[in-house]
Amino acid sequence: MRLSAKGAALVGVFSALHAVLYVMSFGLWRNWAIYLEPIEGIILGPWLGLLAALMGGAVARMIKPTELWMFGVIAEPLGVLACGLLARKRWKPLIAIYVAMLAAYFAHPFGRQLPLWTILDILIAFLLIYPAARMSKSLFEEDVKGLPLSLALISFIGTVMDSLARVFLLIPVGVYTIFGWRFEAVYPIFVAGAIDSYIEDLLVVVVSFLVGVPILITLRKIPGFKYPLS
User: Fold this and answer.
1) What does pTM read for this prediction?
2) 158 lies in a domain?
3) How many CB atoms lie under 10 A from the CB of residue 104?
4) How many domains would you assign to the chain?
5) Domain carrying residue 187
6) Handedness of CA 47, 52, 55, 56 (dihedral sign)
7) Closest of 116, 193, 218, 210 to residue 155, by C-alpha
8) Is pLDDT at 28 greater than 60 in this prediction?
9) pLDDT of residue 71
10) What is the average pLDDT value for the chain, to the nearest integer?
């Protein structure tokens, strides 16, 4: 895939925005970069979006280090990738990623012991992948009636993909062993994280509705600007 000058410029802009939002995070929620992920994926597409999120996430953790840096650097690009794939109506690769990560989670002893309610949003998002991909045409039609619902679905699935990647890294990949955590330590951390994730799902959908919809409508008025770029 050749990267045009416009594409390179937009990757730079979005990676910078991604980093700035993460560094500025306070108050409303733990990581403001999550609010950018749906628009990042829809405008840049799956591959340029993944690149921008990877660059932005890496730079952000260099500026604002954390011992859990690997979660964001890997999970955020996958969340953007999910949004980009749905915008391109490419639901099969996304379903394959979900199935692989969920299978690995349930194959792990911790995955079978942790409460099922903690990953209900992941299971619901999995069921919504195909409908969301089918509805993604609303992102590009002149009639904007279907745009809010389509963007809400894509935002929800992308945010949950971010969460699923973190779960995959923590449990099947075994990041918990790096910190010497036993199941007794993982359990309360996982449950608290699940509650945070449900709040995160809602906030991202609301922000996408209030901010993302006007942004996409405005972009349609720019002559010659077509997205996704990849």
Assistant:
1) 0.90
2) yes
3) 15
4) 1
5) 5-219
6) negative
7) 210
8) no
9) 77
10) 88
